[in-house]
Design brief:
This protein is α/β, with parallel strands linked by helices. The chain contains 17 helices and 16 strands. The protein has 3 domains: 3-175, Rossmann fold, CATH 3.40.50; 178-378, no CATH class; 385-498, no CATH class. It is 44% helix and 17% strand.
């Protein structure tokens, strides 16, 4: 498939998807339903944002965005939070949005979570699937899922899949939107008289950070950070036609808050503690009262996803505190007043109602420059990478071979993540169909692999820059995963695994 044909193929698919999704929303509303759009993180929310503001205005012949924007748009991360604040009734219907269906595993798990939660009040929710491309057939879906909108999709092969995924990733990059939506993002209107450089030039002088440089209208700063505080700390800058965006990352390895022995008092400072408890206590109480769900088929997946959503919220607030501690004072007052955390971004994590409740409190914390000590230690001792048990030895040997037989750090990393990719021939075997989902690496594990062969100097910076670039390209997917530490306690940590767009 030639490059021009790829563009045309993606354009055609987007037109078809937009027409279909608008018709589905219209029919649901006609039937008295309230459509809730659940865009699978991480790419789909940003692809939608790019589509609405960059693609749709160039195609006046297509349905307008009005019907779409009348619906709540969120992600699967908000499902546990929404369950505690929304009255569960049969009026609400879900539309799950994805860019490409490989096996449909994630879609199935999200649909199953919605199905299980809806059983609490005895009303099975309608759940529709919507995708732009189909690589493979759907796995078994729960009984509440309607697949007619994706049944008409034309399947595409491995070669075409890689090309169209690359093309869609390129389009998201042209909008220069932060793909990681799980961390605080300060935005400034691009129509402002100041530029992004007016802001990040101030950060380049910070003594405890390293400036990685600029590429494709983005820039990154790496903060020197005690590993006992967080796994890593960085700030990324994005300059688009609509916003200048500044995203702060400071993720901790944290306990599994669904465990009964966990101390829930994460924050010392009252404002942070209030924001934390306002969200997680209703979730913990709600699912403790309905713990029977975890014993249902696919209940284990539901439990994992609830725990992950809680950890995302914890690390969002931890990164807010880090941002204020390290960054806010450096921003000149005349620029600081223009930087805002948007409710729409928070809504992707919490859902619209919780977002409306907390966004003013978050902004107040930022404006008052409040930080908080943390009542739990970051634990980085123990697992920093993992692989499916049947591939552990092969994977470990392969990583060692790559490190010793590669000419650059970038080549080592590319080969490692290529091994995990769904196009690896081993995953065509039915018994290994979903194993690509169960790999994870961290900055520390990748450093351990590369350091003996490439030295310690600047290795962390090279890995960070490569990872950032590959995340933007859809090659790498960061995700919080649950592991058991050496003492037998379960903790969450942020790992990287292969996305759909790994180069052959």
């Amino acid at each position: 498939m030639e490059s021009n044909n790829v563009v045309l193929n993606v354009d055609t698919a987007l037109v078809r998807w937009w027409t279909t999704i608008n018709e589905r929303i219209r029919l649901l509303k006609q039937d008295g339903k309230r459509p809730v759009l659940i865009a699978l993180s991480r790419k789909m929310p940003r692809l939608i944002e790019w589509f609405l503001y960059n693609f749709l205005p160039k195609h006046p012949e297509l349905p307008s965005k009005e019907l779409f924007t009348e619906c709540e748009l969120t992600t699967e991360l908000s499902i546990p939070f929404r369950a505690t604040i929304y009255k569960v009734d049969a009026e609400e219907s879900y539309i799950l949005l994805d860019d490409i269906i490989i096996h449909g595993t994630t879609l199935r798990n999200v649909a199953s979570d919605l199905y299980l939660i809806s059983q609490i009040d005895g009303c099975g929710k309608q759940c529709y699937l919507s995708s732009i491309f189909m690589y493979n057939g759907l796995v078994n879906m729960p009984s509440n899922v309607y697949t007619e909108d994706v049944d008409q999709l034309i399947p595409i092969g491995k070669e075409d899949a890689s090309k169209v995924i690359s093309e869609m990733a390129r389009r998201i990059r042209t909008a220069n939107l932060p793909l990681d939506l799980e961390y605080p993002i300060l935005r400034m209107d691009a129509t402002d008289s100041y530029s992004a450089k007016d802001v990040y030039e101030h950060f380049k002088s910070i003594s405890d950070c390293t400036y990685l440089g600029e590429w494709e209208n983005t820039a990154t700063l790496i903060f020197k950070q005690d590993s006992k505080v967080s796994d890593f700390a960085k700030m990324r800058f994005f300059e688009s036609d609509r916003f200048f965006s500044f995203e702060i990352f400071s993720p901790y390895s944290l306990p599994d808050y669904l465990e009964t022995a966990v101390d829930y008092n994460l924050f010392a400072e009252g404002s942070y503690r209030n924001l934390w408890e306002t969200i997680i206590f209703p979730v913990l109480n709600y699912f403790e009262s309905h713990s029977f769900l975890f014993n249902e088929p696919n209940g284990f997946v539901l439990r994992q996803n609830i725990g992950r959503s809680i950890i995302v919220w914890a690390n969002y607030l931890l990164s807010v505190s880090f941002m204020i501690d390290k960054c806010v004072e450096i921003i000149p007052t005349h620029l600081r007043d223009r930087l805002k955390i948007l409710g729409d971004d928070v809504s992707l994590i919490l859902g619209s109602r919780y977002s409306e409740m907390v966004i003013c409190k978050i902004r107040k914390i930022v404006s008052e420059k409040l930080t908080s000590a943390v009542n739990v230690a970051n634990e980085i001792v123990g697992i920093d990478c993992f692989a499916p048990k049947q591939f552990e030895t092969e994977y470990s040997l392969f990583k060692a071979y790559c490190a010793s037989h590669s000419l650059s750090i970038q080549d080592v990393l590319a080969r490692i993540f290529r091994f995990q990719h769904f196009a690896n021939v081993v995953y065509d075997k039915p018994q290994y169909k979903f194993e690509r989902l169960f790999y994870g690496e961290t900055y520390s594990s990748l450093t351990k692999i590369c350091a003996p062969y490439f030295g310690e100097e600047n290795i962390n910076l090279d890995i960070n820059k490569w990872i950032d670039d590959q995340i933007d390209n859809g090659v790498i997917v960061p995700k919080y995963e649950l592991y058991t530490n050496q003492d037998g306690y379960r903790r969450w940590r942020r790992f990287f695994h292969a996305g759909l767009n790994v180069a052959e």
